Automatic annotation (TrEMBL):
GO BP, sorted A to Z: cysteine biosynthetic process from serine; L-homocysteine biosynthetic process; transsulfuration
Family named by the database record: Belongs to the trans-sulfuration enzymes family.
Designated name of the protein: PLP-dependent transferase
Organism the protein comes from: Rhizophagus irregularis
UniProt keywords, alphabetically: Pyridoxal phosphate, Transferase
Cofactor(s) named in the record: pyridoxal 5'-phosphate
Lineage: Eukaryota, Fungi, Fungi incertae sedis, Mucoromycota, Glomeromycotina
GO molecular function: cysteine synthase activity; O-acetylhomoserine aminocarboxypropyltransferase activity; pyridoxal phosphate binding
Any single Gene Ontology cellular-component annotation: cytoplasm
Superkingdom in the source lineage: Eukaryota
Amino acid sequence: MVALEGGTYTISTSSGQAAQFVAILTICSKVIYLESMGNPKFNIPDFEAIRKIMHDTGIPVIVDNTFGGYLIKLIEHGADIVIHSATKWIEGHGTTIGGVVSMEFIDKHTGPKNALELARWLESRDDVLWVSYRGFEYHENAKKYMWNGFGCIFAFGVKGDANVGATFIDALRLARRASTTHQQLTDEEQLSAGVNKEMINVSVGYEHVDDIKRRLYNCV
């Protein structure tokens, strides 16, 4: 066992048995972090035994599944959070830096629910010109085909002058101007495509919807 900076400990083990992790637990332990396959020996921990002990003590289990990839379904074996290095495994040849995080307790419908609530909240505001979200009742084709949710992306327009969209984005640092996705077009072509100066695209994630509202409220 080697002590690292900040009260973190790393264990080098060839067996991956739960008892070796239990030995270092203290009242200050916050999380246990494993690799699905050790490097360089490719040893595999006993995930279910470790999960039982850690969950009994209220400690979440994070597993780096870079080497295991899609072959080991660690959420099913008790991991709370699974991460992957997209650079090493998914992308492979080192031209892109990235990562992936999977979490057991995230509801896949949270993003669309947040988006619908946020879109309705914006629609009710006097300083918003319009809101376009496929989850609104009048989108018949969306209701017909998108039975599992209406997605996390919508657009809205802010009242103001020709620079209102850019001013809003600069203040918010959370969304993006719709015109940036069509910047290869001229102003006339953008207008023809429905991209107006006041148009803001929003991609809603899993953060609490009240936090997003607070950020928007301070900028609208």
